[in-house]
């Protein structure tokens, strides 16, 4: 590990409410991020469009989000959904930051964006000049994966920096977990 | 970086004659492998079937390799191709080991296997209990990538351990290279 490579290294970890993303963060903290280094760890949470589209509604408006069918919600319901959505974000980021509490000189930043996760992750990797993008990955079968793995597949194909895909091993998968 | 995670960490790097695989190894040496750690770095070279199929021929035999059309070769031509094939392997492994010469306590092992690279890389990741698989990746366009990226795509989908895909950035691609 050369000193040169320890300067201003920016590691972007996409976090969400899944165990897989928390495992990816945990693995990175053990294997990628260096204590007392000048690394910057950026925790990125992307709210999908549907996450809080309701928050843009008043009691009579129709959702104009292209990814979501139209609904009418009362201000009370809208506020409840907005609160729930924000609680999820806060919970994930708080949990992620707790996992980073032992890092000393490493800067930990959080970023919350909204949009299609795969597009936002790629865009933020560029905007934030990430030197490494870390993504969690599910251990699905081939058929299920064809749909669910699209974020990590898309990102690794479209992000310019190195991409680390951390698949949470099943307990029986053997050593190295 | 906890002490625990530094114990017996086995990093498998697939190397070949491409600049991309050498860049992936170089990036890993700066960002993944730790000086004075007890990491084991395994350099894996996979000879594709066609690489030295000729070496199994005598002057009258027909190739029986399912992936290669049949040919008849003189012993001299067969020997020349065999030597060239071995020279390529030796050259890649020597270059790779030279890049690792500054590592102190890190064990560096080399492994040469023969077969379909994507299958062999996945198989060896399991057999060698790799904690991390590192692959180089080309920066091709979408159409070209659809064919050429199959090794890294297949591996990241089929290997149980974390997979680091290092794409060699084009010079204009910005910082973090």
From TrEMBL, chains A, B:
- InterPro entries attached to this UniProt entry: Rossmann-like_a/b/a_fold, Universal_stress_UspA, UspA
What is the protein's name according to its record? Universal stress protein A-like protein
**Residue ranges of domain UspA in the record:** 9-167
What are the top taxonomic ranks of the organism? Answer: Eukaryota, Viridiplantae, Streptophyta, Embryophyta, Tracheophyta
Q: Which Pfam families match?
A: Usp
Query: Which CDD domains does the record associate with it?
Result: USP_At3g01520-like
State the organism of origin: Vigna radiata var. radiata
Origin superkingdom: Eukaryota
């Amino acid at each position: 590990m050369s000193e040169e490579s320890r300067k201003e290294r920016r590691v972007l970890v996409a976090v969400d409410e899944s165990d897989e993303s928390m495992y990816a963060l945990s693995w990175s903290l053990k294997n990628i991020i260096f204590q007392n280094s000048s690394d910057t760890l950026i925790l990125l949470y992307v709210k999908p469009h549907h996450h809080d589209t309701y928050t843009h509604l008043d009691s009579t408006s129709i959702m104009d989000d292209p990814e979501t069918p139209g609904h009418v919600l009362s201000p009370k319901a809208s506020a409840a959904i907005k609160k729930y959505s924000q609680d999820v974000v806060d919970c994930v980021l708080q949990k992620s930051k707790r996992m980073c509490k032992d890092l000393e000189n490493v800067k930990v930043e959080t970023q919350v964006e909204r949009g299609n996760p795969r597009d936002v992750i790629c865009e933020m990797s560029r905007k934030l000049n990430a030197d490494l993008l870390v993504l969690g990955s599910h251990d699905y079968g081939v058929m299920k994966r064809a749909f669910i793995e699209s974020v990590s597949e898309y990102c690794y194909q479209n992000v310019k920096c190195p991409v680390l895909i951390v698949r949470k091993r099943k307990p029986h998968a053997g050593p190295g977990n």
